[in-house]
Amino acid sequence: MDGKNSTLVTEFILKGLPCVDELRIPLFIFLTVVYICTLLGNALLIFTVRRTSSLHTPMYFFLINLSLLDICLSSVTLPRLLRNIIYVKTISFSGCAAQLYFFHFLASAECFLYTVMAYDRYMAICRPLHYNSLVSWRVCMCLAFGSWLAGSLHSITHTVLTFYLPFCHSNEIDHFFCDIIPVLKLVCADTSINKTMILVNIAAISLSCFLLTLTSYVHIVIAVLKIKTVAGRKKAFSTCVSHLMVVSLFYAPCIFTYMRPNSDSPLDKAVATFYTVITPMLNPVIYSLRNKDMKEALKKLWWYEL
């Protein structure tokens, strides 16, 4: 059977999250609150940075990009999940392909951006005298654009490889959104190339970005420990702790999921929920509450506005 027979399936059914009927309304309310908090939290962070001239630095420029990615990433999965809980669980063939593309585009762009942010912190702390020349606004724009472009190229590769295959076993996707691994389980053709690509491309990218980020922070820790004053060490660490927390919350679930393309564990849904639903909401909270400059900017801005 060739790729032309893939039209045998015109729509898919998303099984969604396992939930008894009595908990559907509470789950719907909870996820709605999470989505609203995600949108408002990231929008507030973007607005605050844009309106505060002292925050017009490379670090906060990358942070704005991260917030934009979080808003878009949560919007790819959460509205559909909310609709499926209450109303209908079907998604069209083209809608499923679009969701898979945009999810992996945004998630992989975020992966690359975390690495760029680690590089920015490395340059700021380990090479402060050369920071302004090496991390110019032109460089920042190129790094941010490169993250978005690399994410798009990565995603379109997997989308084409996945939806070129024929679907005829079933149209029920055992997940709450169209992701590569659960979609491939419906294919009635050899998926070994796809699964190899998942390991080589997705898992390898996540792992290599994580290792590059970790390497940057090893150098940062060594440099910070050489600072003689306690206040100096504390300030240097404070700019990095937030990033480390966010990176850990993002990379660990991704590596866990995509290093196991043959897994049928029900735990996969819970892990996916964490990095698609919870992490985008936590990012602005972590960056705001653990960042002195951001807290001061929020106080000044909103005190002035009121």
> Strand share of the residues?
under 5%
Number of strands: 3
Query: What ranges have pLDDT less than 50 throughout 5 or more consecutive residues?
Result: 1-7
Radius of gyration using CA atoms only: 21 Å
The assigned CATH architecture is Up-down Bundle
| Tally of DSSP helical segments | 10
Shape: globular
User: What's the story with the biggest beta sheet?
Assistant: 3 strands, mixed
- CATH class designation: Mainly Alpha
N-to-C span: 65 Å
The SS-based structural class is mainly alpha
N-to-C series of helices and strands: EHHEHHHEHHHHH
Number of domains: 1
Write the layout of secondary structure elements.
Layout: E1 11-14, H1 24-51, H2 58-86, E2 90-92, H3 93-126, H4 131-134, H5 137-163, E3 172-173, H6 180-184, H7 192-225, H8 230-258, H9 267-289, H10 292-305
Parallel strand pairs: 1-3
Antiparallel strand pairs: 1-2
Helix pairs in contact: 1-2, 1-9, 2-3, 2-9, 3-5, 3-7, 3-8, 5-7, 7-8, 8-9
Any overview of this molecule?
With 306 residues, this protein is mainly alpha-helical. It contains 10 helices and 3 strands. Helix 5 packs antiparallel against helix 7 (192-225). The N and C termini lie far apart (65 Å). The model is unreliable at 1-7 (pLDDT under 50).
